Amino acid sequence: MRDGMPWMDTRVHADALENWQNKPGNRKRVLHLRRAVDEFDGRVDVVIVSGDPGVSYGTAQPWMDEGNRAGTFWKISNLDEATGHFEVALHRESVA
Fold first, then answer.
1. pLDDT band for position 38 (50/70/90)?
2. How far apart are CA 96 and CA 39, in angstroms?
3. Which H or E run contains 67?
4. Predicted model pTM
5. How many alpha carbons lie under 13 Å from residue 54 in its C-beta half-sphere?
6. What is the C-alpha separation between 72 and 74, in angstroms, rounded?
7. If 0-12 CB within 10 Å is exposed, 13-18 middle and 19+ buried, where does residue 88 land?
8. CA 43, 37, 9, 94 torsion-angle sign
9. What Rg, from alpha-carbon coordinates, does the chain have?
10. Measured between alpha carbons, how far is 91 from 6 in angstroms, rounded to an integer?
11. 43-71: per-residue pLDDT in tens?
12. Burial class (CB in 10 A: 0-12, 13-18, 19+), 23
């Protein structure tokens, strides 16, 4: 939690960079994240996965904007295209 909201940064919450930086999926992810920044103001869909990176994964649930999550969205706050490191944070829609 940061400022009372969930966030995720691959520098902190992911497996070591050398385990995934040169995999083909990383280049594809960087392209998708760049598109999200360029075309959708950094907003992305998020899937919450339980388990330990590199060890095992349990359940996977898409983040749904409903119930107590209504009015929230995930946004890319940092993208390092050279390595593939990125950060996303949960935001709450402003009420005008």
1. very high
2. 24
3. none
4. 0.86
5. 8
6. 7
7. buried
8. negative
9. 14
10. 9
11. 999 998 888 766 778 889 999 989 999 99
12. exposed
